[in-house]
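User: ok so my PI wants both of these folded by tonight, can you help

Assistant: No problem, let's get them done. Here's the first:
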Amino acid sequence: MATMMEESVATFETHLTAVMDSLIRASVCEISKLFQDMVNDYLVELSLNRKENEALKQRLRLTETKLRTERKYGMGWAASRRSAGLEAAEGKGAGGRQKRKVGARKYCVRMGSFVCLFPPKQGCFPSPGVCHI
């Protein structure tokens, strides 16, 4: 009877070892799969962050270029160029062009911007921080 009991214990241990080995292998595979999925997610996120950083750097370069241009030519430079184009497009003179008023704006070296020379009643109002000399 003791030998039969010993055989049963040995058989049980063998089956238990096989089941535990199978569970450990399945667990390792599942953990490895989860880890790989997590790494792939991080790689995708890293790639998206790099693309976003590049887009933001490009936007910063464009903004800095615009700022340098505005500092060099004055804040009203781009607006005056746009309004000149609009006046030319809307004009009814010869060839659809209209003469711009000369001397309406003056560049102020001290403030680094254009200043309006029209009196306020004609639609030019002094702005805080803008030189009106």
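One down. Here's the second:
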Amino acid sequence: MRSEYIRSTHPVGPPVPKLPLLGTTWYRRGVGYWLRRAGVVLFVLLILAIFGLYVGAVFDAIATSLHGAARVVLLGLATGTVIASVIAAVRQQRRYTAWRAPRSATAGGLGAGVSARGGSPLAGAFLIVVALVGIGWPLLWLVMSCRRYSGPAEVAAVQGVAQWKAQHPDWRP
């Protein structure tokens, strides 16, 4: 009877929400948390390496196939596109924290569009443009995965636990 009274009057602990990829490991920040964070960084590095090899091949093809001013202009355009891609990714990430698109809206038609154009010169040009424009996202993901918190969800969870602890000053772990 006494233990039921104590449980009802004294909180057990702060609510620890499950986060994507991290589960509840973010609260204790033990070995499991750091292994998951390292896995995310390695995955992002793999994606970045694939994009980097493809973009490097595009730059190499431009540099070896053209001569003179045309080479300088195209390399400048490609470099500008990569820089613009990084800037656009950063801006979009800032907006992303305010609004999240449904998964069906973000990935719905991508596969159908690429497979419909497969094997055509248009598909090759499309993939070159996508690689140059899309390299910003893996770069941003790499930077974001190495920060203190893995994303807005972890920041919100940490703030929620801090608010709970402020409301329950007598609670001891």
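Residues 161 and 167 are 10 Å apart (CA to CA). Residues 22-100+109-148 form one domain. Good luck tonight!
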